[in-house]
Amino acid sequence: MLDSYDVIVSGAGPSGSRAAFLCAQAGLSTALLERRQLPREKCCAGGLLARAEMRLGEQGRGLPFESGVEGLCIVMGGRTYIYRSGRELGRTVVRRDLDAHLVEQARKAGCHTRQATKAESVEETASEVLVRTESGSLRAKYLVLAEGASGGSASRLLGEYPRGSVINGAALFCRDRLSPGLATFLLPGGRPGIPELTEAGAGICAAFPMREGTVLSTISRQGSGRVLDALRSVAGRLSLEPCGEGCAHPIPTAMRPRLATRRCLAVGDCAGLASPFSGEGLTPALESAGLAAEAVISSVREGRPCLAHYDRALRSRAGRDQLLARLTGEAVRLAVKGGWAAPILAGLERDPYSIQAAAAVAAEEDGARRFLMRTLPRLPVTLAKGAR
Ligand SMILES: Cc1cc2nc3c(=O)[nH]c(=O)nc-3n(C[C@H](O)[C@H](O)[C@H](O)COP(=O)(O)OP(=O)(O)OC[C@H]3O[C@@H](n4cnc5c(N)ncnc54)[C@H](O)[C@@H]3O)c2cc1C
Hints:
Elements: E1 3-10, H1 14-25, E2 30-33, E3 47-49, H2 50-56, E4 65-69, E5 71-76, E6 79-84, E7 90-93, H3 95-108, E8 112-114, E9 121-124, E10 129-133, E11 136-145, H4 152-158, E12 166-174, E13 182-187, H5 195-199, E14 205-210, E15 213-220, H6 224-237, E16 247-252, E17 264-266, H7 268-271, H8 282-302, H9 308-337, H10 341-350, H11 353-362, H12 368-375, H13 379-387
Parallel strand pairs: 1-2, 1-11, 2-8, 5-13, 11-17
Antiparallel strand pairs: 3-7, 4-7, 5-6, 9-10, 10-11, 12-15, 12-16, 13-14, 14-15
Helix pairs in contact: 1-3, 1-8, 2-8, 8-9, 10-13, 11-12
Bound molecules: flavin-adenine dinucleotide.
Flavin-adenine dinucleotide binds at residues 10-16, 33-36, 42-47, 118-119, 146-148, 150, 169-171, 217, 249, 251, 268-270, 274, 279-282, 285.
């Protein structure tokens, strides 16, 4: 006899374990499959924005954090700009610890977790989904695909990511601390800039504080070797000593042609939800997991599949966020190229209004659109203050 569940979740990253937790908590019989044994390493800078943490609800209770982030530090053209928000914008985590914690919470909620169990193939019929693993087959009414950027089954069922939308992310852990309590962003523009980043096709390098060190991270369309080389030379410029070689991993930044079939849906990186500006993927991973769990729970309760709403809801939210992220990236690029970035950054130091508005977005008290409506009209004031 096959093991049979209401829902199988394939992939125990944050999106998968969040969806599994919510389904199990709602009383659905739930299996969470993970191809690796936990705790496992995951290539990530570990920046968890306040709005991402909020989405974890009680599953996030007791999370092992590394450091709080209360402000930003921007380094450009040899100058350092510091903005303190007076509130916590987010925290940093080690992904090995975050992911293991979330899976353990899913298990405690009643989810059946199967580690070192890869979903080899998926077959969907009108009435169920069959998942084949090395140790046998499982069946379920619904399947949540949370396999990250590597999802072969997702490509077959939902189509490939749009061409050119998968970029490379790289991260390098360093022993020394850079700016405790601050997230530092290095912009390669200005003189003297950071030519290695520009040559590696990377726009911005982020440096996040950890309990005992710093994580450097960046995204680029170029090959991972080149991006990692750039991170190593940035570490050298900042006098940070790397621990190990660093890592690189693909980040999908645009959605697949479909996000759901009748009985399967994709969440997180598997759906293609990360920000094309920053590579931030934890917030949309957790948001999509919440929407996916809602869709599956109501389908099980109603006794018929109703996942189409998930596709529409996620596409409209994530599409809007990804468009704004693209526009923000373009605006930063133009500001650096056009020489306006320095007066804007100096103006922001004297006019903390926009920093408070950004802090409200990080805490999800405000949306990105309202942020733009509030801050863009103020740009001339900021520029004038910065030019003084
Ligand atoms: C260098 C780098 C830095 C980043 N920094 C940040 C950051 O600071 N903040 C942020 O918000 N985001 C960051 N991101 C993005 C973030 O890591 C991802 O968006 C996030 O991990 C997505 O979570 P997920 O659960 O969808 O997928 P994943 O975390 O990739 O989890 C997928 C899981 O599925 C498992 N799996 C895969 N295939 C199968 C299968 N067939 N069967 C069973 N299991 C399977 C994998 O082993 C894995 O455990 C970064 C990404 C990179 C590459």
